[in-house]
From TrEMBL:
One cellular component (GO) term of this entry: membrane
Keywords: Membrane, Signal, Transmembrane, Transmembrane helix
Segment forming the signal sequence: 1-16
Protein's UniProt name: UPK3B protein
InterPro entries: Uroplakin-3
Protein source organism: Furnarius figulus
Annotated TM spans: 188-213
Length: 248
């Protein structure tokens, strides 16, 4: 009678056993991608050749803040309020997304296959509470940590290590932008700006003067006039005749 009772006591413990898979998720390394991290997304390597023993499992990506990753409970399944993207990170310490099967992660990798996952790329379901497993944009810079969890039905059967902390890009505040440029301070930059403005004003004035002088010289009248012919009357003993004088 003691043996069946002992088996019953051990059954829940055996049922809840989750295998630790020796794999650490990481940002994509090959090929080199533009936008490996952005202000709301990051790109991971796919977990190829990691869950080969679990052909019937669903493989989920777990996303958590670094400070809440240690409190993650793998018995809480995807799609629940505690794992909903829309409630992360305020009332959900982690969310589960990018549901896949082993067929999505074939091993070995076929030639030409894309072997990366972009976390945060789905914008259409960000506010849709009916899509709690949405792969929506991340709302802060992090740091985040992720891991993969394999479920058979609703039971977790295998999980990877947590990734190293992942920081997203942030836009620089105007106050954080350095006012120095190659060793020149803000005063030098201001002086250069003022001199440039004064030079532009001086140049504009010079051009205006040249235009004014040019128009004045073209519009004036000449002080010289064309000489007129003068008639000189000559007399001789026979007749009088008119002869034009030479032009002066």
């Amino acid at each position: 009678t003691m043996l069946p009772l002992l088996l019953l006591l051990l059954l829940p413990a055996a049922h809840g056993t989750v295998e630790h898979v020796d794999y650490t998720p990481s940002l994509a390394k090959s090929p080199m991608l533009e936008g490996l991290t952005t202000a709301s997304t990051f790109v991971l390597e796919q977990p190829r050749c990691v869950f080969d023993k679990y052909g019937n499992a669903d493989i989920w990506l777990v996303v958590a803040l670094e400070k809440t990753a240690t409190t993650f409970n793998n018995s809480v399944g995807p799609g629940t309020p505690e794992r909903a993207f829309q409630k992360f990170p305020d009332s959900a310490p982690a969310y589960m997304t990018l549901n896949a099967t082993l067929a999505n992660y074939p091993c070995p990798k076929p030639a030409g296959d894309i072997t990366v996952l972009r976390v945060g790329s789905e914008t259409s379901c960000t506010e849709d509470v009916n899509r709690p497993t949405c792969n929506g944009p991340l709302s802060g810079p992090g740091p985040y940590r992720v891991k993969f969890l394999a479920l058979e039905g609703s039971e977790p059967v295998a999980e990877t290590d947590w990734s190293n902390p992942i920081m997203l890009r942030t836009a620089k505040s105007p106050n954080s932008i350095s006012t120095t440029n190659g060793g020149h301070g803000a005063g030098m930059i201001a002086l250069t700006t003022i001199l440039s403005i004064l030079f532009a004003i001086l140049l504009a004035g010079l051009v205006a003067m040249l235009v004014f002088w040019g128009s004045d010289s073209c519009g004036g009248s000449s002080t010289f006039s064309k000489p007129e012919a003068v008639t000189v009357r000559r007399y001789n003993t026979h007749h009088v005749y008119d002869q034009p004088a030479a032009r002066l």
